[in-house]
Amino acid sequence: MCTYEAERISVTGSAKGANGWFRATDATVYYDHPVHFGAGHALMVDVINPALGASSRVGLELNAESARELALAILRSLDGVPAGLLES
Amino acid sequence: MTSNLQARTIHFNSYDDQSVEAYLATTEEEQAGGVVVIHHFPGYDEATKEIVRKFAANGYNAICVNLYSRESPGASSDDAAAAAHARGGVPDDQLVGDVGAAAAHLRALPNSNQRVGVIGYCSGGRQSVLAACSLDLDAAVDCYGAFVVMSRPDSTMTSIVDRLPDLSCPLLGLFGADDQYPSPEQTETLRELLTQHAKDFTFHEYEGAGHAFFAVDRPSYRPEVATEAWGEIWNFYGQHLSSAK
User: Is there a contact between B77 and B42 (Cβ–Cβ < 8 Å)?
Assistant: First the structure.
C-alpha cells in the first residue's frame, strides 16, 4: 500500500548523495513500496535537505529484519562510546 | 491493435497557472479517446511512462502528469517521491486540478473525440475514483486503490465515500484477492456503496494476485492476471471512449 505516512525528524550532520556531500537537516522513515529493492514493501530511510532540493538525499531500502538490526547497531555503537566523547 | 505513436515530455499550465511536467503519448488514429494515467506513489517512473505508451499503441492519446513536479522540478522520480513522502503526499484538490487540466489538454488535441477516461494504480487508484467523482469524465479505472472506503489517521489518504454519489462515469475496479490494502472486505464495502448510489461499475477480483499485480518491474507482478486485466481495460475503454461525443 502507499500511505504517504512517514516519521520525520530533524537531524544534524552530513550525508553523501549522488551529487556529493551535503548538510543533512531532516530524515524520514517509512514502510512502503521500495524503488529498487526487490520486495513488495521495505523500511525506507531518507536523509535529506529539502532546502537544497529533492536530489539532496541519501536513501535506504531495507527489509524489516535488516532495519531492526541497523537500528540496534546504531544504539549499540552509541552506548559503547567512551565517557566524555559523545558530542551533542 | 498496434498504432503508430509519438511520445515526449511536455510542460503545460495546470489549473493554478503553474507549469507542470507531463508525459504525453499520442496515437496516429483519428477520433481517438484520451486517457489520463495517474502514477503510483513511487512516482513518475519508467514503468508508468511505458503504460502511457501502451495506451497510445492501442489507439488512445494518453498523458501522465508528474504529480511531484511542482515541488521537485527536474528531480529523478525516486528523489521526488521521497520528497513527497516527507511533505505528506499530494493534496486531493491539487490532484483533481491536475487531472482536470490533463483531461483538457487531451480534449484539445486535434485528433481527440472529446472522450477522456482516467486510470490510476495503487495510490493512483484512489485518486482515479476521486477524480471521477470531481470531474466530468467518461470512464474511470481503479487499480487496487486503498483508502477509498477507509481513512488512515493523520494522513492525506482519507476515505472518499462521501464523494461517491458524485461519480460522473462508469467505473472499472481491478483488485487482487490477496491484497490487504484494499482488502476484499473493503472492496465489498465499495461495491455495496456504489450499488446503493445506483452507479455503473464493474469489479474484478483476481485469485492468486495481491497488490500491484500490473507492476512489471516488481515481484508482485502476475503476468497472467495482468494480461487478463489489461483485456478488461481494453473492453471497458473501447465501450466508453471510442465513439465521438
Answer: yes
Radius of gyration (C-alpha) of chain A in whole angstroms: 14
Instruction: Give me the domain span that covers residue B45.
Output: 5-241
- Cβ A21 vs Cβ A15: under 8 Å: yes
B229 band by pLDDT with thresholds 50, 70 and 90: very high
- Look at residue A49 and tell me if it is in a domain: yes
Other CB atoms within a 10 A radius of the CB of residue A67 amount to 18
State the smallest CA–CA distance between residue B162 and chain A in angstroms.
20
Which grid cell sits at A30?
Answer: 517509512
Q: Is B87 helix (H, G, I), strand (E, B) or coil?
A: helix
Find the CB nearest A57 among B71, B82, B122.
B82
pLDDT at A2: 63
Size of interface A-B (CB pairs under 8 A): 94
* CATH value at residue B90: 3.40.50.1820
Q: Please tell me the total count of domains within chain B.
A: 1
Cα distance between residue B70 and residue A85, in whole Å:
44
Can you tell me which residue has the cell 477480483?
Answer: B205
Give the three cell numbers for residue B18. 503553474
Domain housing A71:
7-79
Give residue for cell 472518499. Answer: B160
State how many domains chain A has: 1
What order do you get walking across the sheet with A20-32 strand by strand?
A: A7-17, A20-32, A42-48, A57-62
Q: In which residue are the cell numbers 537500528 written? A: A71
* Cα of B241 to nearest chain A Cα, Å: 29
Structure confidence at residue B106 as a pLDDT band (50, 70, 90):
very high
The answer to whether B122 contacts A3, with C-beta atoms less than 8 Å apart, is no
What span, in angstroms and rounded, lies between the C-alpha atoms of B182 and B167? 19
Residue A60 falls inside a structural domain:
yes
Q: Which of B134, B118, B147 is nearest to B51 (CA)?
A: B118
